[in-house]
Amino acid sequence: MQIERLSAWNDQGDQPLIIAGPCSAETEEQLFNTATELYNNGIRIIRAGVWKPRTRPGTFEGIGEDALQWIQNIKKKLDVKFAIEVANAQHVELALKYGIDILWIGARSTVNPFTIQEIADALKGNDVPVFVKNPLNPDLALWIGALERLNQAGITKLGAIHRGFSTSKKVKYRNLPQWQIALELKRKYPEMPMICDPSHIAGDRELIQSLSQKAMDLVYDGLIIESHINPAEAWSDAAQQVTPAALKEILESLVIRKSNT
Ligand code: PEP
Ligand code: MN
User: Fold this and answer.
1) What is the CA(80)–ligand 2 centre distance, in A?
2) Does ligand 1 lie within 6 Å of residue 49's CB atom?
3) Exposure b/e, 220-256, CB count within 10 A at least 16 = b
4) Gap between the Cα atoms of 258 and 256, Å rounded
5) Which residues of the chain have pLDDT under 70?
6) Which ligand 1 atom lies nearest to the CA of residue 23?
7) What percentage of the chain has pLDDT greater than the value 70?
8) Which keywords does UniProt give here (predicted)?
9) Nearest CA owner, ligand 1 atom 6
10) Complex ipTM above 0.85?
11) Nearest ligand 1 atom to alpha carbon 236
12) Is the CB of 163 under 6 A from ligand 1?
């Protein structure tokens, strides 16, 4: 695969790439207040789910296009970039129309080559950075296949997000880390930026710090962490989100071994 090094397009220098923000954009006020606090704590790339792939129907499925307008409004006031999840061609078109800076593909999409191909085709001719989360199931070939489909569509600002793998067992983590699968991807494609999503591995905000440190010990290139102005009241993934202040503490506690960038 032809992949640009992270340092070629990320302006955070040799620091780990940090993306933080709410699981979901809920209201313009929630998104603005969260982004502002994160900005004041040094975060420059905000994540926000606009379309949410919920396991069961009848739960909050995201705001959609209106949230893209909120993002545009916030970017006029704060010097931040935004990253969102896209799961089909229409999401890609809208994300590009509203100038979203970074896209990611969720774990439920990575399992489906038809979906990935549709997204890849919609991205042709664009230069936007795209991160691909590992598939729900521990299948390295499927993860690599998704990255290859995007790369073949001309996406070279490409990276991987390790968010853990589904399990039916009741264990400490919501998703098993299975670090060796991500490390195998890092070994095969050393130039591929690899960031860790401790929030979706953990499912529990108390575990975010230790997972983040583990990722730094394994020389990951960065972290994507869910942060909400009022985590307990979040409309999705309430148990795993941290306040911007707690996030700052977590980030300050991390021992950074070395950067790959
Ligand atoms: C998310 O990032 O909020 C999300 C739905 O993640 P995943 O695809 O890893 O489950
Ligand atoms: Mn989430």
Assistant:
1) 20
2) yes
3) bbbbbbbbbbebeebbbbeebbbbbebbbebbeebee
4) 6
5) 258-261
6) 3
7) 98
8) Coiled coil, Transferase
9) 106
10) yes
11) 3
12) yes
